[in-house]
Amino acid sequence: MEKHALVQEELRLVAALSAVRTKLNEFALISSLPSEVLEHIFSFCVSWLYDARRKDRSLAWTQVCRKWRCVSLDAARLWHTIDLCDARLASLCLHRSASAPIHLITTSAWKLPCAGDILSAHAPRIQSIDVSLFPNDLEDLFQSCGPELIGLQSLSIEVPPVSSNFVLDASTRLPSLRCLTLRGVWIPWTKCQGLTHLSLCRLTAGYSPTPAQLLAILEASPNIQDIYLDHISPTPSETEFVPVSPIPLLSLRQFSITAKARQIHAILSFIMLPESAALIIDCHQFTTLDSLFPTTLYHIPNILVHAIRFMGARACIFANSNPALSDLSAEPNIVLKAPCTAQAHAFLTHNPVLFTANVTTIEIADVMYNDEFMTAGALNTFLSHFPALELLRLTSFTDLSDIVTTLSTPVAQHGMPCQRLKSIWFGKAYVVALGWKGMEKEVRERLRSLVAVRREAGCPVRLVSAQDGELYAFCKDESSQGPD
User: Fold this and answer.
1) What separation, in Å, do the N-terminal and C-terminal C-alpha atoms of the chain show?
2) Residue 325's closest CA among 274, 367, 282, 360?
3) DSSP string, 259-317
4) Does residue 56 contact residue 89 with C-beta atoms inside 8 Å?
5) How many other β-carbons are positioned within 10 Å of the β-carbon of residue 202?
């Protein structure tokens, strides 16, 4: 009896001590944080659970004190991400998420998912699926979810490149789907309605939507904001499909497409873009801009291009509404990814959509020309198509010989090329590679000669360099030695 009384007294004292410690914790500064703030902080801690490098004690924050544990376990939104590759964690999160919407993910395509029967009771709560699995595992996953995914808003499915394309069961209902990302996966395209994001990649012939099906998706998704089409292969017999009138996609922010020129032109013929939309085209073989851009592409007659930046295998096109080209944070209206020579030749023909006669700035941010196009004659032909050019920016190291020769040699019946050219701007690469005082004498003489010849022709040009973020005048006169 005496032992029993002592045990009871011990339990009473432990409970009293625990109550005192709880009250003392309330005086700690961190205890003044509202539960909502703690919950937001813990949301970052929860993300550790889905890191492949996670440690064994990744739930340690729930054991700091009673308040932290209660806040963590009672916040359903902290546990809404379900990793199908971890059966124990998935079961725990499904229980703690209560009735909150859940998001299914996989942290590895090489682990079999633990879906089984644990998802069937929670199918109405599934709001997003972002998984990378082999086709057999994907089939098991959707069978366990059932045919009614009425709450699913975001679907991102990928099969490894080594596997064949996966076909989603046509009986699966997706009435709330808004964001769709498929890599090597086919779904019934008639289910794609009201989308705000569409990304299709690695769809081989027979699995890729035909132009007619793609048009139907866009017609049913007038508020779509992002479109990404990478190496899709429409049915050859339907690549010439042209709708009665283009579909206006006035909410579109970005359209990215990688395909053959014929397919790009056919797809762009379906739609009408707002001037503010970013258009990214990746095409290795094309002849002129007309072979890519249909005349109905924009809701205005043409886009007035004011600047072009050549960066190796891409040309960035800036419209008049964009900030100055010197602002490196400026986003181009159009990005054309293609071999360097194809880029240059594409701009040598007039295009009714992209009006380049008013281009005032050209920047060569990487080696643009190959040996064939670097000749003075080819450069002269290229620059002659930009009569309004005022600023030529050279931000990477390029042989100056042909550029200097072209800009200092008059053209028969036309006089000095680029007569409106006011400045040639040299980037830090020139400062590092040549140095204004260490520049080879022959190059310095060529630059001075260029300044003198254009001044005499009534087309003066100013050479400036970027050094430590500031611009220094160079070759102000023939005796200039450049900045220190």
Assistant:
1) 97
2) 360
3) S-HHHHHHHHTTEEB-TT-EEEEE-S--SSGGGT--TTSBSSS-EEEEEEEEETTEEEE
4) no
5) 18
| pLDDT, tens digit, 9 for 90 and up, residues 439-459 | 556 667 778 888 888 888 888
Eight-state DSSP code of residue 469: T
Contacts with 32 (C-beta within 8 Å, 6 or more apart), sequence order: none
Task: Supply the pTM of this predicted model.
Answer: 0.78
What single-letter amino acid sits at 359? V
CA torsion sign for 212, 217, 222, 223 is: negative
Token pair of 24 as six digits:
């003392």
Residues in CB range of 374: below 8 A, 6 or more apart: 399, 402
From CA 68, how far away is CA 39, in angstroms rounded? 9
Contact by Cβ (8 Å): 83, 50: yes
Q: Which two tokens stand for residue 352?
A: 């009714």
> Do the Cβ atoms of 139 and 145 come closer than 8 Å?
no
- pLDDT tens track for 109-146: 666 666 556 787 888 899 999 998 888 888 888 888 88
